[in-house]
Amino acid sequence: MTAQVDYLAVVFTATSGTSGEWLGSDEKETVQLMWQLVDVKNKKLGKVNELRIKPDLSDSEEKQEDEVEESTTEQHNSGADCVTTAENLETALNLFHLQLTNEVNSAGTGTSVCLCADGQLHIRQVIHPEAASKNILVPDCFYSFFDIRKEFKKHFPASDLKALNVQNMAESLGLPNEVAIVDPESILSPEVAVQQVQTMTSIVLALLSEPFCHIFSNPEKVNDKFESGTCSKMEKVSDNTVIRARGLPWQSSDQDIARFFRGLNIAKGGAALCLNAQGRRNGEALVRFVSEEHRDLALQRHKHHMGNRYIEVYKATGDDFLKIAGGTSSEVAMFLSRDDQIIVRMRGLPFTATHEQVLTFFSPEDGLKEMCPVSGGREGILFVRYPDGRPTGDAFVLFSCEEHAQNALKKHKEILGRRYIELFKSTAAEVQQVLNRYSSAPLIPVAPAPLVSVLPAMPLLPPPGTLRDCLRLRGLPYTASIDDILTFLGEFIHDIRPHGVHMVLNQQGRPSGDCFIQMTSPERALMASQRLHKHVMTSQRGQNSRYVEVFPCSAEEMGLVLMGGSLSHTHTRTQRSGTGLSPPPCLSPPSYSFAAAPQVLTAEAAAALYPPFGQMLLAPRPLPPGHGYYPAASAQLYMNYSAYYPSPPGSPTTIGFFPSPSALTSPGGLVRMPGLPYPTNGVKDIINAVQGYQYSAEDALVHAPVHTQDPSRTLLTQPKEWVCI
């Protein structure tokens, strides 16, 4: 609309809650709608109309509201020329549109009419959000309006748009100001609302008259629907236009997000649902608006409700949005280029699924009238694949209309091949996000750079025929303790080496059900395995009991498992295949290699720090503390499921101390201590944990700032030589 309109309907709304700049921020219902018609050509005013709306209340609240309304009607007269009462918001909006149309037709000087409001809140934050939450169809006249503040600023550029209100605009134009200043946290009275409307119409007439001769053209637009689309990673997204919504229902779609922000203009494809590491929705979304003004209005909807859940709204950045919604794949761009398409995500497909099988899956069965044809046939199906072309079991399918999509969703968990298929309504941003995740992530995560640059030299797999003087216990109760293991061993407890019990933990730090025991001789280890194999062990801390498998093994095999390897033997019909051992998972497959870190220690120093692994376990030498070697702790940087557990009463049993050469100097060490308990006492607990090593209390320094939310990310730095994990 570029030409001057014939009529302006100056509109003012009031809710049962806050008013002023906080209007609509508390989700209170609309209770009052006032307007006055302005004849733009003849500069004449119509009558002031007041429409009172009864809020939707419970029976007890409704009874109290009726009593208050009766007393208010008797005591107060708003001063409006025409007062009407509506039962609900839907009736009020339809009645407003009918009365406005009749008044324009009766005037007879034109037909075009547009609303005019004081700011954005009355239309965008009051009418549209409440109508969307109550599933009310809003009349077309509420999708365009003039903001009197922006029209005023065209003639007074120096004025601050956010600070403008009816009072200071009237003062700047030299108009009488009879509007009282009202507390935004108080409920607006009908008399003040009538004064607001009358003052606004005076401002409109002043702008239409000389010397301004203002032309009301190009009104504000309210989007009636959300446009899906794609976003390129190369696109620039302003940080002032993006918000993060948190607490969404897991089944919500981009249309539900657009419905929550109804009245505000979301950019094309600007609603992106976030996924977790498993590819499922995590209840968060990033929303991009067309301007900073709309973003600021969205922030006022913090903790507004979507159904029975309140939604948290925070600021976000453009980079956050591009990480979720941005894409570079031309295949995805072509798939999403079709307009007015509904996307459905398929999850759990067989890896051998084809386009024809998917088309058959959505074809109507015999005797059923529900149709859900795939839009575009084969072109409407997009399979998600890894970079090497292997299928992931996910696919996206296009449907031409909402009816077909809903019929397709009814096939949720039906069988395709031998697997049931999960179906979800999806979005364009989710398509980009899933494709980005599978196409950009490496098949095996890259391991972090080690803190210790030189690892001990030892073969990955121990040679067959080594000394098997250790025991492996498999299938322990998860509540089993060291005492339970010693009770289980019985008479063989005297054949255990000092501090020779080692329990294996999983990646979460919980018992894995495995345990290694160092025996004094291979003969006693073999005898113990023959007598105790598949005997029952009972845990004192729990009622459960399990039979335990007992095998003899070597110290090298024990060390391999503690480093993250596996003892899953493979057999043939006649003989054992090789050693039957698996290397640590960080070293397999060989096609993935990590860049070698620069050597920081000489060969002599490395030999002093890192002796042969099996020898260190079998015969730890009680020498004065020098450089401590933690084999499993160092290897934990590469491991992904195993760790060793020192047996009491000493600490830890698999650590040997060796004197360092006199020429060896250490500039200090940086120690990362993962897995700290929460809550913790901070520095005191950390110092107690490392007591007995070569450092003084004043040398310890907790890396600032301390992570109070995640204590496991705290670092302890010390400038002198002691132990480096």
Task: Walk me through the structure.
The protein has 725 residues and is of the alpha+beta class. Helix content is 26%, strand content 23%. Helix 5 (166-172) runs parallel beside helix 6 (190-208). The longest helix has 19 residues, at 89-107. The two termini are 71 Å apart.
Write the SSE topology.
Layout lengths: L6 E9 L14 E10 L4 E10 L5 H17 L6 E5 L2 H19 L5 E5 L3 H13 L10 E4 H6 L12 H7 L17 H19 L11 E2 L9 E2 L9 E5 L7 H7 L5 E10 L5 E9 L2 H8 L4 E3 L2 E7 L2 H8 E2 L2 H6 L6 E6 L7 H7 L19 E5 L5 E9 L2 H8 L4 E3 L2 E7 L2 H13 L29 E5 L7 H8 L6 E10 L5 E9 L2 H11 L2 E4 L6 E9 L1 H8 L40 H7 L3 H6 L8 E2 L2 H5 L7 E3 L11 E2 L10 E4 L10 H7 L11 E2 L12 E4 L7
Parallel strand pairs: 1-5, 3-4, 5-6, 8-14
Antiparallel strand pairs: 1-2, 2-3, 6-7, 9-11, 9-13, 10-11, 12-13, 15-17, 15-19, 16-17, 18-19, 20-22, 20-24, 21-22, 21-26, 23-24, 25-27, 28-30, 29-30
Helix pairs in contact: 5-6
Through-space gap between termini: 71 Å
- Sum up the overall morphology in one term: elongated
Helix content: 25-40%
Strand order of the largest sheet: 4-3-2-1-5-6-7
Task: Put the structure in a nutshell.
This protein has 725 residues and is α+β, with helices and mostly antiparallel strands. It is built from 20 helices and 30 strands. The two termini are 71 Å apart.
